[in-house]
Amino acid sequence: MENRPLEYDYTVAKMFMFTTVILGIVGMLVGVILAFQLAYPGLNLFLGDGLAEYTNFSRLRPLHTDAVIFGFTLSGIFATWYYVGQRVLKVSMAESRVLMLLGKLHFWLYLAVVASVVISLLAGVTTSKEYAEFEWPIDIAVVIVWVVFGLSMFGLIGMRREKSLYISIWYYIATFLGIAMLYLFNNMEIPTILGTSAAGESGIGAWYHSVSMYAGTNDALVQWWYGHNAVAFGFTVPIVAMIYYFLPKESGQAIYSYKLSLLSFWGLMFVYLWAGGHHLLYSTVPDWVQTMGSIFSVILILPSWGSAINMLLTMKGEWQQVAASPLIKFMILGSTFYMFSTLEGPIQAIKSVNAIAHFTDWIVGHVHDGVLGWVGFMIMAALFHMAPRVFKREIYSKSLMAAQFWIQTLGVVLYFTSMWIAGITQGMMWRAHDEFGNLAYSFIDTVTVLHPYYAIRGVGGLLYLIGFLMFAYNMYKTMSSRRVEESELQNASPMGA
Prior knowledge:
Keywords: Cell membrane, Copper, Electron transport, Heme, Iron, Membrane, Metal-binding, Respiratory chain, Translocase, Transmembrane, Transmembrane helix, Transport. The protein is mainly alpha-helical.
């Protein structure tokens, strides 16, 4: 029998690559609109009074966050899983009709949920819980999608030819298990029509409306245990999985220390879950929970920096590749933003710092230097690496990729520096008082002084969006660029001028 190399089937990976790009454009476009609405409130009515209900900040904001988290990022996680999983486990999706069916079912169910989320959020149907705005029918659909994803993932792992599980697979498994646990517990809710109905009478409210099973302080505690760890298992763990695969493959360098990757993995798994309490400092949550959240947040620097330093040291002796390849630039600067963001977060979790930072735009800046600089850069780099191997075509333009890198880097820097200044200004003005103990500034004074920083933030977001549109165009043109042979795809991705 002829011994031919294994041919991987990227059908499902391609489908999720397309949604990653499309939902990224949607999420970031809405984000730019929101940024300029904060600087110029008249833009809340940019489609006229008749549509103001659908264009104001409060209606669009959850659409932005959910499109970026559960649209762009999650699609990127799924796309890379269906690519990385096959190659690392040495098994093709095409070898199992059941696995291929599950993968396609996963995609189409996911797309249906995305559509229902967009429609419901625009219509104002929301639970009003941050990052958990979906009502109970959509929550059930999300669970079904996640179960299908899990069956697909563990099915592929179960039929693997590679006996040992590479570290990236560990991180993907943790993503699945972590989000499953978080989502189930935080979204336990009761339809109001059931909870308010008496014998023989219909209940109060629409059939799709629900209320949380938790109340008051307990609800806040569960919500931010979920909210912070959605960042852990959506924005951190799967992105680390990506870079542990794509950086060595693109550079031809082995990971600096495999032992450090394992140590960092278990450190993240244990420490991250306890840090959510830092969102509730100076609240009605028990003081020991707040203190524990702060302490574990500071400890979190160790496993986070362990991963980031491991990534940077992977390029030891090969730094000329960073200068030569814009694709590796994305991954290395992404790792740097990861280090930066995972130092900034623990600093903000210290109680004395949080007294100034809480409720200010410094928090917004922290979120975005992580999401734009780490998550965004890494997902784009992963798709750039995948494209020549999935489409058998060289990347359309290296110069376009380089221009995109610098435009988006400038955008991220403008974004987080303006939000640093705005946030610390807010915190200090809110605390300032005169010799009689009266507040020195009214709330509107702080709003007025922040206007230039809000305008700069809008420009930074716009630059990032322009860069993402360049990325989308480059990916689109790649599908019809020069065909490449398998021999050209061993390490560095082939790129046109």
